[in-house]
Amino acid sequence: MAGRNEGGQLRGGWTARRTAVVAAGAAVALVAGAAVAVQRHGGVASVLPVASPTPEPTRSPLLPADPADAARPTAAGLARALAAGLRDPALGPHVAVSVVDTSTGAPLLETGARAVVLPASTAKIATAVAVLTGLPPDRRLTTRVVTGPGPGDVVLVGGGDPTLSGPFTRPGYPGAARLADLAAAVRTALAGKAVRRVLVDDSLYTGPQLGPGWRPEYVTSGDVSPVQALMVDEGRTSLTPVDGPFRAPRRPDPALAAGHDLAVLLGAPRAAVLRGPAPPGGATLGQVASPTIVELVEQMLTRSDNDLAEALARQLALARGLPASFTGAAAALRAVLADVLVRAGATPQAVQLADGSGLSRLDRVQPGGLTRLLSAIAGADRNRLFPVLSGLPVAGFDGTLSHRFRRGPGRPAAGVVRAKTGTLNGVSALAGLVRTRDGRLLAFDLTADAVPLGATLASQTALDRLAAALAGCGCR
Asked: What does each C-alpha distance from 345 to 107, 171, 372, 387 come to in angstroms?
């Protein structure tokens, strides 16, 4: 998680991101302006002329509202600005475009915006909106250890916290509960009593552990863990590079693996570890809590964390009295989003998700639905939904956009665009918020759902170019 934002703080800190939003007044807009140079100190002895270094972009702060004189783009102007980029062959034959004025909620340019597309990870925007609408922002997910049914038995009870940290959590992962702290509390409570068995209770979740429309290799490739109510390090089997993709192969049964990890920390590495329910009335030996829902949502968006997305969707299901399963989570997401979508001027059917992460190839979204949600984030619902904006990756700076917009045609938008990426086989998407050259805040969704084989990276560059065209556009 190392890396630094414009304030010199470690990138990825939930509190730092949220504080930046609140200090600016409200999380509703982006500042206009091109990238500016960062002054460099120190000299190099040389008799040859030395070219000036390429200016580094700055990360735009947040502002409370559009400037009063910010000109509104026209559909014709936007179409001209995007025309060349939309012809890029890397995007394939079909690109759905939706651009909405956040000040009024009015669509400015929509081409295929009501077409049903596969959203990939841009679906996490909808998950975030639903979770922040349906759950208390200060809720935390608790992992407990209680006394078991027999002498020497302890029961590790999962509360659905995928951020519970062990040896394979990235450095700088802030605020997460630690299995070592839980074990220390249990050892103190046991006062020297030997541990004979560690039972694992992950019964909070029900149903299949892999989502409908998921590929089995998502687990082995490290995209996501089997969805269980108990896991350590999101089921990872190794530490992933700090600045690389947050991927490592996952354990096939994260809950049992967590039980084994606890046994070792309790000084009982040979204790039997098996599934079993926590007995009624079992005394609590120790517990640890996750960061708040607000902080989890921010982190889910910044890192495009599939495990967090699925966990949050299940918490929403539980809050609505539904099973904590893929079916229950999908029903909860659709019910909550239907109300938000209608208020934002979209149809209730504009977002239909089969999972919380966007990994499922059964997910269906109208790009116009996502831009209406983004418009709500910057509008009437901003106080409740500000973690969506503060969690969206900043182009060229953090999260899934940290290495994009750093060079090439997208570079002028570095620090200006805040957006969620989406990538699956044949799909490349980018959805978020951008302020135009004239100071107008726009919500946009660009989804190419017929990307040619082998053109994924090129399609991402093409989408970055389109976002930069929006950022630099007066478009009147």
From this structure: 10, 42, 7, 22
* Predicted TM-score of the model (pTM): 0.87
CA distances from 101 to 92, 371, 372 (A): 27, 9, 9
**Rounded distance between C-alpha atoms, residue 242 and residue 238, angstroms:** 12
Q: Are 350 and 364 in contact (CB under 8 A)?
A: no
pLDDT attached to residue 21: 41
What is the sign, positive or negative, of the torsion defined by CA atoms of 353, 359, 362, 368?
positive
Q: How many CA atoms lie within 13 A of 264 on its CB side?
A: 10
Of 98, 103, 124, 357, the catalytic one is 124
DSSP state letters, 123-143: HHHHHHHHHHHHS-TT---EE
Give the pLDDT score at 167: 80
**Shortest CA distance to 124 belongs to which of 443, 292, 442, 360?**
360
Q: Return the axis-axis angle of helices 179-190 and 254-265, rounded to nearest 10°.
A: 50
Which tokens belong to 94?
A: 């079909």
Q: Is 304 a catalytic residue?
A: yes
Using 50 as the pLDDT threshold, list the residues of the chain that sit under it. 1-16, 18-53, 63-64, 242-245
Active-site residue 52, yes or no? no
C-alpha angle 171/18/350, rounded to 5°?
105
Please tell me the distance from the alpha carbon of residue 180 to that of residue 173, in angstroms, as a whole number.
15
Given the residues 98, 290, 304, 375, select the one marked as catalytic: 304
The active-site residue out of 98, 103, 121, 459 is 121
Model pLDDT, residue 15? 43
DSSP 174: T
The tokens of 84 are what? 């060349």
pLDDT at 156: 98
pLDDT in the model for residue 174: 65
β-partners of residue 62 are 30
